[in-house]
Amino acid sequence: MTDYGKIAQQVMSRCDELGKISQSDEYLDRRYLTAEHKQANELVGGWMAQAGMKTWQDEAGNLCGRLESKTPNAPRYLIGSHLDTVPNGGKYDGMLGVITPICLIQELTDQGFELPFHLDLVGFGDEEGTRFRSTLLGSRALTGKWPEEWRKVEDSDGVSLPDALKAFGLDFDKVKHAAIDNRNLLGYLELHIEQGPVLEDENLPVGVVSAIAGAKRFDLSVKGMAGHAGTVPMPLRQDALCAVSEMILAVEKVAQEHGIVATVGEINNRPNGVNVISGYTQFSLDIRSEFDEKRDAGLAKIMSDIEMIAARRNVILEAKQTHAAPSVHCDPALQTVLRNAIEHTGHRVLTLPSGAGHDAMAIADICPVAMLFMRCDKGISHNPAEAIMERDVVVTLEVLDHAIQNL
Ligand SMILES: [Zn+2]
To answer: Cα(125) to centroid of ligand 1, in Å?
Structure first.
């Protein structure tokens, strides 16, 4: 009889231990190809080896471990998440999805359990993209899709990606060898904290991800006419900030009506003076949905609404797209495996989309993917206040155990 409670304790204490490896003295910050990345790989690699896995580091600095099957020519499944963090981040985002499977695999090894496939666990070196401002560097190396232009990206200290790889003992030209042969690859599973409040709101420990939302981002600006706050009568104004205020509310309204999420999170106003009518306001738009068509329909409505606002207020609107990623749908068969596993634990099954990006997005290029979300406190992440409950880890372990044995 597996003692999931005892394993969950180990998961919690290992998350604490790994969460202490940081390039900052004040908060958790562990970025790609740093000394702390190396230290994390060594610590976690040690746990993998202890759990009976064969371990190695790939050409992109990802930490890999394999629970080998004795079946000749066995196919393989991948499981994993990332080991990097954002600056001032939490200790569960990413790490939970590496540590939990290791502790579970330790149990499988101890019980002498035989799998008919190799189970490869990956701790990705970069998901957050905080060092080089490009996300998913680790998982994209596995798909063989590192664009040539990444040769030129630099961190905030001016260190190029090839130089950072070299300092880590790696070689940009050899990263292509991290690409994995997907002929025998049956699928990828990722466990991650939800990073949102839905599971907590539903009073559930875990949920199955239906799809990872595709995002589009825009830089928008409105040009009006700056003027004296005392002398220009209201009907004669071309107030850029007032126009943008109306546009932001339109974004919110359309998002609500279309069942998507849209956010204006950044705003810059000029001249930004207490007695000056705003002449120029720049703002961001981030729009997401698990369904690209739904997102694009909402986007079209937003654009036509804000163009109408600009025309009515006699200001000039400019829009530039800065990012576009399609949504990724999780594999129906793998989702069923996770749903059955949750049912087996006696919990209600909830399927929900992921609004945040994950390594599974990149891996979907080479095999079917599925994700299990675990509840986190108030949905908080990318924050030292990120927290989970040990009793949810107990359920997660049981779900993963059941899922792995029924793949
Ligand atoms: Zn993450």
So the answer is: 11
Threshold 0.85, pTM exceeds: yes
Q: Which burial class, exposed, middle or buried, applies to 285 when counting CB atoms under 10 A from its CB (0-12, 13-18, 19+)?
A: buried
The CATH fold assigned to 4-212+327-405 is Aminopeptidase (3.40.630)
Distance 372 CA to ligand 1 centre (A): 12
Q: How far is the CA of 294 from the centre of ligand 1 (A)?
A: 25
Per-residue pLDDT for the chain (407 aa), expressed as one digit of tens each? 899 999 999 999 999 999 999 999 999 999 999 999 999 999 999 999 999 999 999 999 999 999 999 998 999 999 999 999 999 999 999 999 999 999 999 999 999 999 999 999 999 999 999 999 888 999 999 999 999 999 999 999 999 999 999 999 999 999 999 999 999 999 999 999 999 999 999 999 999 999 999 999 999 999 999 999 999 999 999 999 999 999 999 999 999 999 999 999 999 999 999 999 999 999 999 999 999 999 999 999 999 999 999 999 999 999 999 999 999 999 999 999 999 999 999 999 999 999 999 999 999 999 999 999 999 999 999 999 999 999 999 999 999 999 999 99
135 is written with which tokens?
């996300």
Other Cβ atoms closer than 10 A to 291: 16
Distance of CA 129 from the midpoint of ligand 1 (Å): 11
- The domain defined by 215-324 carries CATH number 3.30.70.360: yes
* Residue range(s) in the chain whose domain bears CATH number 3.30.70.360: 215-324
- How much distance in Å is there from the Cα of 87 to the middle of ligand 1? 13
CA 326 – ligand 1 centroid, Å: 18
Q: How far is the CA of 277 from the centre of ligand 1 (A)?
A: 42
**358-to-80, 135, 338, 370, 372 alpha-carbon distances in Å:** 11, 9, 18, 11, 12
Distinct helix (H) and strand (E) counts, the chain = 11, 16
Determine the distance separating the centroid of ligand 1 and the alpha carbon of 96, expressed in angstroms: 9
Cα(218) to ligand 1 centroid in Å equals 23
